[in-house]
Specification:
- There is one protein chain.
- By secondary structure, the chain is α/β, with parallel strands linked by helices.
- It has three domains: 42 residues, no CATH class; 329 residues, Dihydroxyacetone kinase, domain 1 (Rossmann fold); 193 residues, DhaL domain (Serine Threonine Protein Phosphatase 5, Tetratricopeptide repeat).
- Helix content is 41%, strand content 13%.
- It has 17 helices and 15 strands.
- The strands form three sheets. It has a seven-stranded mixed sheet with strand order 11-10-9-14-12-13-15.
- Strand 7, helix 4 and strand 8 form a beta-alpha-beta unit.
- Helix 10 packs antiparallel against helix 11.
- It is elongated, with a radius of gyration of 32 Å.
- The N and C termini lie far apart (90 Å).
- This is Dihydroxyacetone kinase.
- GO terms for molecular function: ATP binding; glycerone kinase activity.
- InterPro entries: DhaK_dom (IPR004006), DhaL_dom (IPR004007), DhaL_dom_sf (IPR036117), Dihydroxyacetone_Kinase (IPR050861).
């Protein structure tokens, strides 16, 4: 009955046979295997421990930020304590004892039940991030993915437990159960009242006799901590925490396999593969699939809840925790939150009571997330305790869930108040066609502008200019073509409303500046005024590798044909310039941009040349 010889069959039947040697290599000094929970049964580890084929020795390790000559766990504890404002302390380091404790006067042994948790490191902020008033009294930190020693756990119990005793909360892994369990028995022998609560919230495998403990344990910490702070005795705190542990469910997915600092990454999820139901130590999950969208991924995760909980539990009120497993960007996490809520609602979980979004239980650098549902009706005090205040640095307060997003009226954007003429004279028709040709030239050039900006900028120049050009063409029949000043002002508003980023603002400035002077100084004078406005507000000058390097040479020309030619040459000259002096390119090394012209300057040459050619053809 050993997990290291068992294979798991997902819906696509692609799980690998377990290999104990991989387990030993990836999870040093750990005994994560045998476990059982109040949900019943005993078996050896939920999922195989094979971490996946390692890459060839010639491939580099993943870049990580740590001190190879130091103990990474002790360095991390040091940082956590130094930014805690004095709220946290640690026990002396003796024989691998790494225990973070509360450092406040309210941690009175005669008033509160002490709460301890911990386990292997690499899951930060778990568990030291949960130490504080209203949550844990102490966190016992093992090596990365390795349970702390019995000695360390016992030291933690003795440091924080008093007359009211201690509740030890552990995730359902063998090493944690055994080491914390032995320490608990020793503490009881020393006269300290103790109880242990084992949390196994993972629902990856249907009817698993001993599911693993993952992100749901954090919610159990919170409820137990708030109950202890109310002065409840050990039995009462255990009652509430136990009710939560029996009614919390989690499932996760990842696009990558985590890797320990200094180790080479696994290739198990190379390409477009993702995994569902994997463990927080990098254990393979129950199912491997081709990468889908965020909405598809969330829908599939919710299918696990539907199958495991059944229809009768869907109407229960749930608190939802969306947990970042390590390296999912905040932007993508926000997408996931919306998709997860929608997927739950579509699946019949229509009574979402609250939502928490947090990096709560990680797996080093794993790029993935997990969803946790806690039945807040499992005990009559759960809601109150979940919302109770805490000083634990990593806790994020739950927010009431609102399915209907409130949308407020948006103030209307500035629009040109000019009226298009009912009839166009010859000059107006000529201007209309010149503008149209110039805009079309930018749309046609978008791929080349984008390609250049991917080298010298952030890659959005071509698409941004294309958006502005398309809007100009769409509004051609609305433009006040019989008035040069009004026309330029309207074009400024048009591109300002349709183009994002800096380009839209700069072109809007240029058009508005030109509008103020065109009637007094003609088209060349207007172009000069517009260029000066861009230079003043944008801060760029000739020679800085920007659109100014095309505009200024055009102003120095004697006629329109020469102006267009000068703009094209000025843009081309930026390819041999050194470091940019303004814009996104200013952050890019000069050697990386050598040979590539600035796309903003190139665009000026393109539309000015197209405009002049159209004018010469149609005048």
């Amino acid at each position: 009955m050993v997990g290291v010889g068992r294979s798991l069959q997902g819906s696509q039947g692609r799980m690998a046979q377990t290999d104990a040697r991989w387990h030993a290599a990836f999870v040093p000094n750990s005994a994560h295997g045998l476990a059982s929970t109040p949900r019943g049964g005993v078996h050896l580890d939920l999922a195989p421990r094979r971490v996946g084929a390692m890459r060839m020795s010639g491939e580099p390790v993943r870049k990580r930020m740590y001190n190879p000559s130091h103990n990474i766990v002790e360095d991390a504890i040091k940082g956590a304590l130094q930014h805690s404002g004095g709220a946290l302390a640690r026990l002396e380091y003796q024989n691998s004892v790494r225990v973070v404790v509360r450092n406040d006067d309210t941690a009175n042994r005669k008033v509160e039940v002490a709460l301890l948790s911990g386990g292997g490191s690499g899951h930060e902020p778990s568990h030291a991030g949960w130490v504080g008033e209203g949550m844990l009294s102490a966190a016992v930190c093992g090596d990365v993915f390795a349970s702390p020693s019995t000695e360390a756990v016992l030291a933690g119990i003795k440091a924080v437990a008093g007359e009211k005793g201690a509740l030890i909360i552990v995730k359902n892994y063998t090493g944690d159960r055994l080491n914390f369990g032995v320490a608990l028995e020793k503490a009881k022998k020393n006269g300290i009242p103790c109880r242990m609560l084992i949390v196994g919230d993972d629902i990856a495998i249907e009817d698993a006799p001993q599911p693993r403990g993952i992100a749901g344990v954090v919610l159990v910490h919170k409820l137990a901590g708030a109950a202890a702070q109310k002065g409840y005795d050990l039995d009462k705190v255990h009652e509430i925490a136990s009710a939560a542990a029996k009614n919390v469910y989690s499932i996760g997915m990842s696009m990558t396999v985590c890797s320990q600092p200094g180790s080479k990454p696994s290739d198990r999820l190379d390409g477009d593969l993702v995994e569902y139901g994997l463990g927080i130590h990098g254990e393979p999950g129950v199912e491997r699939r081709t990468m889908g969208s965020s909405a598809e991924t969330c829908s599939h995760l919710v299918e696990f809840f539907s199958k495991r909980l059944g229809e009768d539990k869907k109407s229960k009120p749930y608190a939802l925790l969306v947990n970042n497993l390590g390296s999912l960007p905040p932007l993508e996490m926000s997408v996931v939150v919306g998709d997860a809520c929608e997927a739950l609602h579509k699946a019949g979980f229509t009574n979402i009571d609250s939502v928490m979004v947090n990096t709560a239980m990680t797996s080093l650098d794993m790029a993935g997330f997990s969803l946790t549902l806690l039945d807040v009706s499992c005990h009559d005090e759960v809601r109150e305790l979940l919302y109770a205040p805490t000083t634990a640095s990593a806790w994020v307060q739950p927010k009431p869930y609102k399915a209907d997003i409130e949308v407020k009226p948006c103030p209307a954007p500035e629009e040109a108040t000019f009226e298009a003429p009912k009839t166009l004279d010859a000059a107006a028709k000529l201007k209309r066609e010149v503008i149209k040709r110039a805009a079309e030239s930018i749309i046609k050039a978008e791929p080349d502008l984008t390609a250049a900006d991917l080298i010298v900028g952030d890659g959005d120049c071509g698409l941004t200019l294309k958006q502005g050009a398309e809007r100009v063409i769409a509004d051609l029949d609305k433009l006040p073509l019989n008035s040069n000043a009004d026309l330029l002002s309207a074009l400024g508003i048009c591109v300002g409303n349709s183009m994002g980023g800096t380009s839209g603002i700069l072109y809007s400035l240029g058009f508005q500046g030109a509008a103020a002077e065109v009637d007094k100084q003609g088209w060349l004078g207007g172009l000069k005024a517009g260029t000066e406005a861009i230079m003043f507000y944008g801060g760029a000058k000739k020679g800085m590798r920007t659109m100014i390097d095309a505009l200024v040479p055009a102003l120095e020309a004697e006629n329109a044909d020469q102006a267009a030619e000068a703009a094209v040459k000025g843009a081309a000259s930026t390819a041999s310039m050194g470091k940019a002096g303004a814009g996104r390119s200013s952050y890019i090394p000069a050697e990386d941009m050598k040979g590539t012209a600035d796309p903003g300057a190139t665009a000026v040459g393109i539309w000015l040349k197209a405009a002049v050619e159209a004018y010469n053809e149609l005048k």
